[in-house]
Amino acid sequence: MKLGRYRFVAILQRLLVGVATLIAASVLVFLGTAVIPGSPATAILGAEANPEAVAKIEQRLGYDKPLVSRYLDWLGNAAQGDFGLSAVSVAQNQDKPVSEIISRPMWNTLCLALAAIALLIPASLILGVISALKANKWQDHLISTFGLLAASLPEFVVGALLVSVFFVGLDLLPPISLVAPGEQPLSNPKILVLPVLTLVLTLVGWSARLVRSGTIEVLKADYVQMARLNGIRERRVVQRYVLRNSLAPSVQIFALCIQYLFGGVIVTEAVFQYPGIGTALVMAVNSHDNSLVQAIATILAAVYISINIAADAIVIQLVPKLRTQV
User: Fold this and answer.
1) Domains with residue ranges and CATH for the chain
2) Which residues contact 265 (CB under 8 A, 6 or more apart)?
């Protein structure tokens, strides 16, 4: 009961810090878009737009209110999932809710990220553990060289190489990942293969190397050496002692990778013309749609914070001594 109470308090503390961090991030996002010189309505309609039309759009979007009042209204609505109206849609007399516009790109990015995570985590664990168990042998050197090469190449280079091999050379996979309106990305899995491989290859070398370092530290631990001296088979030592105790540092590594997958897919989506949240963010910035930019940036911040909290909760569960450190 006592350990359970400590664990609950530790996780609650992280939740409260996460909420405070998200509010601070929302303030920065809102101020960042609010202090941009010029009116979004003028930017959308053009410099020679009718002043009455500009004023009407600004009033519809609430830009005629004081900044603090606008933020508090926006924050209260955002907490309920209402991010307001798209500025571009208001200028076009369509009044589309931001939540409606971003729902499809968010789902597309979620499919892409989950598919990459499903490959990245087992691949990193397998390569990292093998590299640690075969430290300074040819297997370790091969995995390390591959990881260093993959990590040194940016996403657009990896994507271009994959297109050259699988489309130009082998004609097996499409070079772009377009999703038809009304369809799901999973309805045509082929379009996900190259973007997923691009994301995995750019991350697996770095994450596997960090898993290797954590596993080597565990292999040096006294309890592992004692298990070996007691005659326990090496496979059982690895399964029972090494893997479980190397999971704690690996959780933080994978949390960083997952954060990148959700927030750093802009380049990959652009290379393959994939209609995800990164593409939507770029289009929103180019069209001066501040409402859309605020919503996407805040949602990505919430995803980052949620992943950190989940990773901390898993580590607290895996490492008993952290349950009392509150």
Assistant:
1) 2-98 (no CATH), 103-319 (1.10.3720.10)
2) 109, 112, 113, 199, 276, 277, 278
Digits of tens for pLDDT over the chain (326 positions)? 455 566 777 778 888 988 999 999 989 988 888 777 666 666 666 666 677 777 777 777 777 788 888 888 888 888 888 888 888 887 777 778 888 888 888 888 888 888 998 999 889 888 888 888 888 888 888 988 888 888 788 888 888 898 998 888 888 888 888 887 777 888 888 888 999 999 998 888 888 888 888 888 877 777 777 877 777 787 777 777 777 777 767 777 788 888 777 766 778 888 888 888 888 888 888 878 888 888 988 988 898 888 888 887 877 776 655 544 44
Q: Please, which residues have CB within 8 angstroms of residue 196's CB and are 6 or more apart in sequence?
A: 112, 115, 116, 119
Give φ, ψ of 149 to 5 degrees.
-65, -45
Q: Say which residue the tokens 């994301």 belong to.
A: 199
Burial of 20 (0-12, 13-18, 19+ CB in 10 A): exposed
In the structure encoding, which two tokens stand for residue 15, read together? 């939740």
Find out whether 254 and 207 touch, Cβ atoms under 8 Å. Answer: yes
How far apart CA 121 and CA 89 sit, in angstroms, is: 40
3 state SS of 285: helix
Instruction: Give CA–CA dist 308/24, Å, rounded.
Output: 16
- Crossing angle for the helix pair 243-263 and 98-133, nearest 10 degrees? 150
Nearest to 207 by CA among 262, 137, 260, 243: 260
Task: Please list the residues that pair with 97 across neighbouring strands.
Answer: 85
* pTM for this prediction: 0.80
